[in-house]
């Protein structure tokens, strides 16, 4: 699985060349709703963060349905499911189609692609055969590609191509990964801290450690954490390690540094993941580093990073509940 992370730059360039089937221009779009779960859903979180200063507000929904009161004629819905068979995303997409035909799809195949074909929706069929979490740059680039082709440009193609260059520096990524590996190798329940602007990266770090390394993780976002989490450590009986993600804003880094010093004063080991470049470059590089780190942590623990037994058990339960969930989702 490690080899797939090492090919992120190659995969990204491949995704730049994907064709949007049923491509057409959507006029009058004023907001975007992104549907997806897990390794596909995090793509929506990252896009929402990157688009925070664009003209389009981006909302991300990770459930079996999408609230009908947020969909109107000015809404574009983007459904992302690597497999194309994620029940939550399929049901949410069907719900969205009750209210609008301004829907796009990104998947490697499965029911979601068939749904796009039947309804004449714009879609991109991406490379198959990967774990969804290791296909992050493919889905991210494909998402920007589809949106731009449909007249919704969140980032200029030239800016996107420049940002992808950060994935070429594998020597630096592996060096940072070694540092992070040594910091986390004995951790039982690490704390991950980031600013709101980088909350999606904090969640990505958590998810990679969860799925690849099989390590539970606690995530806290500042400045909100200064109104609750900071107090929780005053008499904490359990202390592990804290990984803090730095920012591109000076005042946010001062807050990060303050919390790192506060935690160290309580006997908690801290590590600040220092990133460079603009927002998308930081998301890409940070995701690459934690991906490599999480695989090596799994190897250290004698675990298969690809195997996710608990998710398989959950999916078996979904098959039993599929009809019931479908009825409820349809009526929402």
UniProtKB/TrEMBL annotation:
A GO term for molecular function: mannose-6-phosphate isomerase activity
Domain SIS: 21-157
UniProt xrefs under InterPro entries: Glu6P/Mann6P_isomerase_C, SIS_dom, SIS_dom_sf
Gene3D superfamilies reported for this sequence: Glucose-6-phosphate isomerase like protein, domain 1 (3.40.50.10490)
Transmembrane segments: none
Single GO biological process annotation from the record: carbohydrate metabolic process
Key words of the record: Isomerase
Family: Belongs to the PGI/PMI family.
NCBIfam families referenced in this protein's UniProt entry, alphabetically: G6PI_arch
The protein's name in its UniProt record: Bifunctional phosphoglucose/phosphomannose isomerase
Protein's organism: Ignisphaera aggregans
